[in-house]
Specification:
The protein is mainly alpha-helical and about 240 residues long. Helix content is about 45%, strand content about 5%. The protein folds into 2 domains: about 1-100, no CATH class; about 110-235, no CATH class. It has helices at about 15, 35-40, 50-55, 60-65, 80, 90-100, 110-120, 125-140, 165-170, 175-185, 205, 210-225; strands at about 1-5, 10, 160-165, 190, 230-235. It has a 3-stranded parallel beta sheet with strand order 4-3-5, with no helix packed on it. It has a two-stranded antiparallel ribbon with strand order 1-2. A hairpin with a 5-residue loop joins β1 (about 1-5) and β2. The protein binds iron/sulfur cluster (SF4) (2 copies). One iron/sulfur cluster binds near residues 29, 33, 84 and 85. One iron/sulfur cluster binds next to α5 and α6.
Length: about 240
């Protein structure tokens, strides 16, 4: 909310029309369909980015909020990159998602957000289990020729690189952890992993949950400040 010099209240456009942010208004859409042509998910279960934009233009916002359509998008941004009119399609879809009641968010995504807020990772993995997995996988790697001296430094102050983790690398794809660590070892990279709040996948971004997204980003910022690290490797 802003005030004019005369003291009159001015309501921010974003407050009265959250799907029509200033500077990227869907009113600019000319219906060319370039976004739809570029979207890898056009046609999937009735999804089409031009349809989303047109529904916003027609004031069918409530219908969109109730619909499965905004949840089909991966937020890859190809549509927006291709749009000749600069319509901010990704933000529009994310804003719609944020307007959905949290208990109606489909699939695992909101549950993952809640777990991340309460435990520091989208899996809800206890800290001791996380440390066990990391040490176990690192120990197996150290049995391979050429990696005998390998260890995973956790919470190392002054390291060059903070490595936050994609939860699936900790859960079911441990071999991908090893790929990264072999690259770090060969490059003599001075990296470290946070022992808690290690999640690098911010589902608050995907679910349109701004407060949750801020908390998860803030944790990473806090790691970097506390450990005095300047470089971040973010898995997504
Ligand atoms: S590419 Fe842009 S202008 Fe064309 S239909 Fe999509 S949103 Fe509208
Ligand atoms: S951001 Fe969504 S709508 Fe746009 S191209 Fe990617 S999947 Fe399609």
């Amino acid at each position: 909310m802003m005030e004019t010099s005369a003291g009159n209240k001015m309501i921010a456009v974003k407050e009265i029309a959250p799907l029509r942010p200033v500077g990227s208004s869907p009113d600019m859409c000319m219906g060319c369909g370039t976004c739809s042509a570029g979207c890898p998910l056009t046609g999937m279960d009735g999804f089409d980015p031009r349809k989303i934009v047109r529904m916003v233009l027609l004031g069918r916002e409530e219908e969109l909020i109730q619909s499965h359509l905004p949840w089909i998008c991966t937020m890859c941004g190809k549509c927006e990159h291709a749009c000749p009119m600069g319509v901010n399609i990704v933000n529009m879809i994310r804003t719609i998602r944020g307007m959905v009641e949290r208990d109606k968010v489909p699939g695992m995504i909101h549950k993952g957000v809640e777990l991340c807020l309460s435990t520091g990772n989208n899996l809800g993995l206890p800290a001791e289990d996380f440390v066990f997995i990391i040490e176990d996988v690192a120990g197996e790697m150290a049995e391979e020729p050429g990696f005998e001296d390998f260890k995973v430094p956790m919470d190392k102050k002054g390291a060059n690189l903070l490595h936050t983790l994609h939860n699936k690398l900790v859960n079911t794809q441990n071999e991908d952890l090893v790929h990264w660590w072999k690259i770090f070892h060969a490059a003599k990279e001075d990296f470290t992993i946070p022992s808690e709040n290690w999640e690098g996948v911010n589902w608050g971004l995907f679910s349109g949950d701004d407060p949750a997204m801020k908390v998860v980003v803030g944790r990473i910022v806090e790691h970097m400040d506390r450990l005095e690290i300047k470089n971040l490797m973010y898995p997504e």
